[in-house]
């Protein structure tokens, strides 16, 4: 089952439904115990609980209530807990009473030398950036790498939008985020701001949430299982032949990278059309490369655009390709032409996958992506009735029905020239193998991100290194031990 992320409204609806069945305060009790056990785990990992120091920053809502109840659990374990109330008159009354009764102290300033700071400023009820008092508290903390406390956010890092993941300024940057029942959009869309996300079961049922409130992520195992590999009855044609159209004789790099990635991503056959045909074959002899569409032979899907130029010949070729009834992935220069000639995709009945980065997205949509990337990608896919893969550290893939899959690359090593060409070739291969544009895009994005991490191992990489790591990445996703 893919991992589900929900909007704040959908989370509230599920909580209310469960709350009706449970005694008052049950959900908060479970949530706060979850926060406390994550903090205890962290303290144990770094030397034990007794005598350790935890500071709790408490806002005006139930998020602060969770934090105070968690503080009560910690205080009973011998942790020295202090709480800073940002809005003392609005602090959660039951939580504050429990905290005090357990031996916690309310302070006017957080002391130095804390081991953990719990962010209970706001959760899904938060709006906008941290307000000045909270900003001053978090701004004064020494970062963990310099010996300061680790920050554990309750539900989400305050100052980050629950639904869009917009990181307002200022906002909390958490090392660990503890959330309840189901992940929220923010945990994917602002993953770097959340740190490690820990999900605590509080007994709510979120399976009834509407697709419009849901954002999905594939697990590694799911990507591994869906990756096409040859079966006993397969031959080079039956697995899907991909056609790559990229690069030029003058700039062969995109052609070599995209076709190499297509070869690496699946077995079977890769065809190529372009003026860099000879260069492509000299790098990847298995590619069947020609100069014109008329000579190309049959394929099951096309990946078209990287470095192909935008002149009249390129436009004519793109028009021919998009006039076929085959699945087509359009990237880079191809997107520039599609933005200028939306009619190229307007009447397509066959699957179409557009793979813009933010700049190309703005050209297609007519406006910047903006802070709400999720809504932006969903709207473009709906308006154009195509699948749109918006690239970035968090890649989002929306299909025309509004379903969105996301992938957190986990690191930014793939932000290097030519990495997009590699993604095009990979996703094109998966389209040719019969995956839907959305699954092809999501699986390729996951394997691409994994390849970048494997290739980098802590040092910068170029796209050739990324390409070389595509096979090892697929192997790992498939759970194959190659040793
Ligand atoms: N509803 C439920 O059944 C459960 C809720 N839980 C907790 O409750 C939280 C939601 O609680 P609330 O709805 O009370 O909302 P929050 O506690 O997230 O925040 C709302 C309060 O913060 C103020 N506020 C909004 N933006 C602010 C900002 N930028 N700076 C400072 N203050 C700001 C609002 O005026 C309001 O008083 C969840 O995130 C979760 O932590 C959990 O206990 C699990 C169960
Ligand atoms: K919080």
TrEMBL record:
<feature type="binding site">
    <location>
        <position position="254"/>
    </location>
    <ligand>
        <name>(6S)-NADPHX</name>
    </ligand>
</feature>
<comment type="similarity">
    <text>Belongs to the NnrD/CARKD family.</text>
</comment>
<comment type="similarity">
    <text>Belongs to the NnrE/AIBP family.</text>
</comment>
<dbReference type="GO" id="GO:0005524">
    <property type="term" value="F:ATP binding"/>
</dbReference>
<dbReference type="Pfam" id="PF01256">
    <property type="entry name" value="Carb_kinase"/>
</dbReference>
<feature type="binding site">
    <location>
        <position position="357"/>
    </location>
    <ligand>
        <name>(6S)-NADPHX</name>
    </ligand>
</feature>
<feature type="binding site">
    <location>
        <position position="421"/>
    </location>
    <ligand>
        <name>(6S)-NADPHX</name>
    </ligand>
</feature>
<comment type="subunit">
    <text>Homotetramer.</text>
</comment>
<keyword id="KW-0511">Multifunctional enzyme</keyword>
<feature type="binding site">
    <location>
        <position position="420"/>
    </location>
    <ligand>
        <name>AMP</name>
    </ligand>
</feature>
<feature type="binding site">
    <location>
        <position position="155"/>
    </location>
    <ligand>
        <name>(6S)-NADPHX</name>
    </ligand>
</feature>
<feature type="domain" description="YjeF C-terminal">
    <location>
        <begin position="219"/>
        <end position="477"/>
    </location>
</feature>
<keyword id="KW-0521">NADP</keyword>
<feature type="binding site">
    <location>
        <position position="307"/>
    </location>
    <ligand>
        <name>(6S)-NADPHX</name>
    </ligand>
</feature>
<keyword id="KW-0520">NAD</keyword>
<feature type="binding site">
    <location>
        <position position="119"/>
    </location>
    <ligand>
        <name>K(+)</name>
    </ligand>
</feature>
<keyword id="KW-0479">Metal-binding</keyword>
<dbReference type="GO" id="GO:0052855">
    <property type="term" value="F:ADP-dependent NAD(P)H-hydrate dehydratase activity"/>
</dbReference>
<dbReference type="GO" id="GO:0110051">
    <property type="term" value="P:metabolite repair"/>
</dbReference>
<feature type="binding site">
    <location>
        <begin position="62"/>
        <end position="66"/>
    </location>
    <ligand>
        <name>(6S)-NADPHX</name>
    </ligand>
</feature>
<dbReference type="InterPro" id="IPR036652">
    <property type="entry name" value="YjeF_N_dom_sf"/>
</dbReference>
<protein>
    <recommendedName>
        <fullName>Bifunctional NAD(P)H-hydrate repair enzyme</fullName>
        <ecNumber>4.2.1.136</ecNumber>
        <ecNumber>5.1.99.6</ecNumber>
    </recommendedName>
</protein>
<dbReference type="InterPro" id="IPR030677">
    <property type="entry name" value="Nnr"/>
</dbReference>
<feature type="binding site">
    <location>
        <position position="158"/>
    </location>
    <ligand>
        <name>K(+)</name>
    </ligand>
</feature>
<keyword id="KW-0547">Nucleotide-binding</keyword>
<dbReference type="GO" id="GO:0046496">
    <property type="term" value="P:nicotinamide nucleotide metabolic process"/>
</dbReference>
<feature type="binding site">
    <location>
        <begin position="123"/>
        <end position="129"/>
    </location>
    <ligand>
        <name>(6S)-NADPHX</name>
    </ligand>
</feature>
<keyword id="KW-0456">Lyase</keyword>
<feature type="domain" description="YjeF N-terminal">
    <location>
        <begin position="11"/>
        <end position="210"/>
    </location>
</feature>
<dbReference type="InterPro" id="IPR004443">
    <property type="entry name" value="YjeF_N_dom"/>
</dbReference>
<feature type="binding site">
    <location>
        <begin position="391"/>
        <end position="395"/>
    </location>
    <ligand>
        <name>AMP</name>
    </ligand>
</feature>
<dbReference type="InterPro" id="IPR029056">
    <property type="entry name" value="Ribokinase-like"/>
</dbReference>
<comment type="function">
    <text>Catalyzes the epimerization of the S- and R-forms of NAD(P)HX, a damaged form of NAD(P)H that is a result of enzymatic or heat-dependent hydration. This is a prerequisite for the S-specific NAD(P)H-hydrate dehydratase to allow the repair of both epimers of NAD(P)HX.</text>
</comment>
<feature type="binding site">
    <location>
        <position position="63"/>
    </location>
    <ligand>
        <name>K(+)</name>
    </ligand>
</feature>
<keyword id="KW-0067">ATP-binding</keyword>
<dbReference type="GO" id="GO:0046872">
    <property type="term" value="F:metal ion binding"/>
</dbReference>
<keyword id="KW-0630">Potassium</keyword>
<dbReference type="InterPro" id="IPR000631">
    <property type="entry name" value="CARKD"/>
</dbReference>
<dbReference type="Pfam" id="PF03853">
    <property type="entry name" value="YjeF_N"/>
</dbReference>
<dbReference type="GO" id="GO:0052856">
    <property type="term" value="F:NAD(P)HX epimerase activity"/>
</dbReference>
<comment type="function">
    <text>Bifunctional enzyme that catalyzes the epimerization of the S- and R-forms of NAD(P)HX and the dehydration of the S-form of NAD(P)HX at the expense of ADP, which is converted to AMP. This allows the repair of both epimers of NAD(P)HX, a damaged form of NAD(P)H that is a result of enzymatic or heat-dependent hydration.</text>
</comment>
<keyword id="KW-0413">Isomerase</keyword>
């Amino acid at each position: 089952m893919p991992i589900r992320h929900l909007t704040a409204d959908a989370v509230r609806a599920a909580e209310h439904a469960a709350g009706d069945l449970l005694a008052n305060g049950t959900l908060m009790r479970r949530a706060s115990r979850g926060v406390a056990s994550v903090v205890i785990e962290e303290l144990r990992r770094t030397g034990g609980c007794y005598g350790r120091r935890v500071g709790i920053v408490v806002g005006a809502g139930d998020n602060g209530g969770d934090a105070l109840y968690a503080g009560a659990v910690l205080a009973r374990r011998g942790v020295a807990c202090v709480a800073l109330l940002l809005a003392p008159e609005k602090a959660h009354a039951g939580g504050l009473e429990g905290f005090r009764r357990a031996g916690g102290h309310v302070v006017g300033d957080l002391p130095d030398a804390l081991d953990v700071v719990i962010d209970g400023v706001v959760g899904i009820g938060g709006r906008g950036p941290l307000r000045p008092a909270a900003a001053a508290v978090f701004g004064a903390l020494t970062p963990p790498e310099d010996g300061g406390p680790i920050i554990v956010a309750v539900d989400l890092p305050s100052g980050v939008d629950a639904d869009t993941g917009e990181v307002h300024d200022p906002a909390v940057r958490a090392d660990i985020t503890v959330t309840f029942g189901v992940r929220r959009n923010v945990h994917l869309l602002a993953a770097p701001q959340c740190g490690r996300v820990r999900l605590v079961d509080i007994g709510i049922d979120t399976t009834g949430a509407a697709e419009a409130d849901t954002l999905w992520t594939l697990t590694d195992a799911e990507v591994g299982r869906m990756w096409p590999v040859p079966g006993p009855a397969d031959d080079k044609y039956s697995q899907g032949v991909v056609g790559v159209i990229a690069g030029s004789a003058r700039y062969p790099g995109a052609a070599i990278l995209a076709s190499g990635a297509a070869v690496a991503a699946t077995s079977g056959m890769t065809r190529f059309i372009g003026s860099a045909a000879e260069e492509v074959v000299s790098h990847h002899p298995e590619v069947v490369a020609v100069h014109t569409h008329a000579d190309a032979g049959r394929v099951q899907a096309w990946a078209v655009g990287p470095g192909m130029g935008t002149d009249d010949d390129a436009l004519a070729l793109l028009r021919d390709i998009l006039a076929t009834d085959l699945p087509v992935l359009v990237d880079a220069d191809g997107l520039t032409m599609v933005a200028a000639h939306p009619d190229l995709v307007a009447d397509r009945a066959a699957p179409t996958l557009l793979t813009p980065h933010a700049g190309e997205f703005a050209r297609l949509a007519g406006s910047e992506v903006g802070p709400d990337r999720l809504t932006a990608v969903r709207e473009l896919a709906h308006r154009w009735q195509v699948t749109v893969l918006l690239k970035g550290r968090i890649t989002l893939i929306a299909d025309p029905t509004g379903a969105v899959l996301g992938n957190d690359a986990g690191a930014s090593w793939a932000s290097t020239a030519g990495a997009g060409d590699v993604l095009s070739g990979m996703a094109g291969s998966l389209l040719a193998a019969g995956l839907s544009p959305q699954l092809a895009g999501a699986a390729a994005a996951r394997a691409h991100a994994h390849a970048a991490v494997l290739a980098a191992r802590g040092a910068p990489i170029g796209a050739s290194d990324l390409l070389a790591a595509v096979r090892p990445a697929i192997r790992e996703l498939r759970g194959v031990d190659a040793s």
